[in-house]
Every structure is written in structure tokens, then in C-alpha cells.
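3.2 Worked example (two chains)
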Amino acid sequence: MQTPLWQAMCARFMPPVSAQGLPGELLARFAGDGGQALARLLCFLAPLTVRALTLPEGR
């Protein structure tokens, strides 16, 4: 919760997301019904969880 990335991302939300309220409080910040909000949250988190694919030379 103290990483620079989390602090920068968390600053996008008003009111701020409480660490004690995770994950529900973060999910509540995304619009739509349950499924839509979850999909938006996962898209928001995707850059944190996906590494760039590197292919060997010649491919």
C-alpha cells in the first residue's frame, strides 16, 4: 500500500480508497452493475499484473 505506483493510482479516486476497505471499496469506485464494475476494475489493474512478452531474436 505504500508503493509509489499505488499512491499515484490511489490519488485518482475521490474520496480516497481506504486500505481497510479493500477490495470492495476500490470496486465501488467503478461504474456499472457488479459485472461491469468488476470488468472495469480488472482493466484498471491489468498493467500491474501483465508482463511484457519478449520473444527470442529471429521470431
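3.2.1 Second chain
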Amino acid sequence: MTSKRQGSGKGFKPSGQVKGAKPDGGTKADDILRALSLAPEIDRRRYLRKQNMPLTLYKFKSVNTEKPYILEDIMVSSRLYLSSPQSFNDLFDMKPHATVEGDLSTLLEKIVSQPAPSQRAKQDAMKRARAIWREQGPDGIAKEFRVQENIENLFANTGVFCFSAISAEASRITGPRNNLMWSHYGDSHRGVCLQFQVSKDSQILQRLVRVKYSDEYPTINWLSPTVEDECLLAATNKQASWSYEHEWRHIELYAARKYTQFNPRLLTGIIFGAKITAESVEEIDRILRLRAESGLPPLKTYYAQTDQASYNIRILRQST
């Protein structure tokens, strides 16, 4: 039985991309990324538009003077902290339902592919699996091999960094103009929004995937030969009520609670929230000085402002 694929998993998949490695060990996507890195920036922007990839990514953050390293990590050290889904504010995010769908031969192939302390241990596992399958069927296998627990552990150890993007369908109320994002992730407009320009370094596309919003709960078939791919698809599925986030994610398997470096050129701007305090502005100025002392490219600075005649948020360039 073929399991239904959930989520979108739509990230850097160029038109005509062939799945799998080439004879030289690379992929067509690797070749395109290399070509993009050598192309003029205007060509990279054209390519992103053609592929429906975001030109700019945004990260809303609070300004915590008691934990200055949080913003320093991004703005000075040029690294992103990959969170475990266990820390997410959405109770259902990246917690798919695990099933056992297939026949006995598929199950035995699965056991053969799993690591074991010895060949004898693997043979014993296959013998036990045959007996459980005959007596209890797939439900017994799911319990014996702790299928749900194993899937949950895989997700718990997956590292994720979440971005927001501008939606072409609602560009005036998404990205840095997203009122809810400021309220929920930007410390109720007292924080900042960091701006990453994707065209500055296309390598960020390598692990970037778009989140799909659906009320259909994601399911993972433990017996699927592409179970890790299905997990990645499930990792990009969120309940429809979260669609206002317009989220893209950097995802790395087995990298939870670790850091990943990015090219300092990616971070191009910072937007101050409409209610940011003088203390927070002073803290950001301190971090910007550290960035300058490190020889990193300067950031464009903006501030958010509410429109007095509508529900819109305006983004204004800070005068120098």
C-alpha cells in the first residue's frame, strides 16, 4: 500500500531536477547552486522569481538584554540556532501520526535495513516480527518496535530555523508588515525584524523548504522505503490556522539544538518595531557596533510605523 504524502516539502527543486545523485556524487541541484553562486545577483533574483522562491526572508525577534547572545549569534557570529520541534509553540507542529502499512515481506526488509548489534540479534528480531505479525498484525508490530516513539525521536532531533516571507497574494500585509507576526514573535512590536536577502548567497536554498497549511493531519508510514523523505514532507505541514505566518524553514536532520553558519552577506537589514523601547534601541546599537568591529557588511535600518487611517504597517528607512 502506498502511503499518502503529506505537507509540501517544496524547497529548492529546480525545474527538470532529477532526484538522486549523479555519477560524480553530486546532484543537479548542486550544479545549479554552484552556477548561481557565480552568476550576477540580478540573474539570481530572476531565477528565484521563476522558481517561486522568496527573494527575502524575515525573522522576528525580541530584544533580550539579559540574553544578548541570542541576537549577537545572528547579527555578529552569522549563525542560526536550530531549534528542536519540542520547543515549538504549536502543540501539533512536526508531530505526525505513525502507521505500519505494508505486508510481511516489506516488514522483514525494514528490519534487515535497521542497525543491529549482531547478525544473531537481527535474525532474532525477524523471527519475533514474523510471530507478532501472524498473531497481532500491524498494530502489534507498531507496539513492539515503538514506531510512534521512533518517529517522534526523529523529529525531536531535527533542527529547524523558521523564517517568514512576503506572500505575492497579500504582499502589503505579509513579511515585515505582518501585524500578527510582530505581535506573536516580535515581542508585541517591541522587538525587531531581521531581513535576509536570499539573492546575496543562494546556498541558503539548499535546505530551505516552504510550509504548507492544511487541516489534514500528517501521517508517516514506518514501512515506507522513503520514510525520511516523508518525515521531511510532514515537517512542512502545519494547521491551516497558522497560515498567516507564510513560513519557510531551514531543516537539518539530527541537528536539533545546534548551530549552522550562514554567509554574513545574507543579513542585509533590521527593522525596529513600532513600540521598541529606548533601552532596546541602545542594545541594538551596541550589537551593530560589534558587527562593524568584526568587519561585517553594514545593515540597512528601518522602523515600523502604524498607518493612522488603516490596519496597515508602514516600513520606513531610517535616515542617516
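3.3 Remarks
The first helix runs from residue 28 to 38.
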